[in-house]
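REVIEWER CHECKLIST
Item 1: Sequence provided? yes
Item 2: Single chain? yes
Item 3: Sequence as submitted:
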Amino acid sequence: MLLLMAERDTWGVVVDQIGSPIWAPGLAPALWGLIAKEGSGTFHHSDAGVASWYDFAVAIQDNALAAGLLAHAITIYPLTTSDYPTTARRPAFSLLDCIATRSLLDDGHTHLRVNLRRKLEREKMRG
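Item 4: Structure as written out by the authors:
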């Protein structure tokens, strides 16, 4: 997304697909926790919070600007799924039920915006 934002003046992003992105380094501790607790069965994990792809793109731009990873803001405008046809069908609502995971691990999960900032801080350090 950062590359697209750096290359374009405007960008349309789908607003009617809701989910909760997850950062892989945030997933690893949950997996290790499930192993340590000898969890069996099906467990789900995602970052806390919900966002459309549009919301997520706006958050990425806001945080990337604050971190100095983007030189300037672009116009991000919302699109509907029907405005952005793809061969793959995407669900409109794809949140996972993480209650069993949270209960077994007895901890909260990190909000997607916190992990987004962490990811962008790493990108900034990489140069």
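Item 5: Key structural point noted by reviewer: The chain has a mean pLDDT of 93.
Item 6: Recommendation: ____
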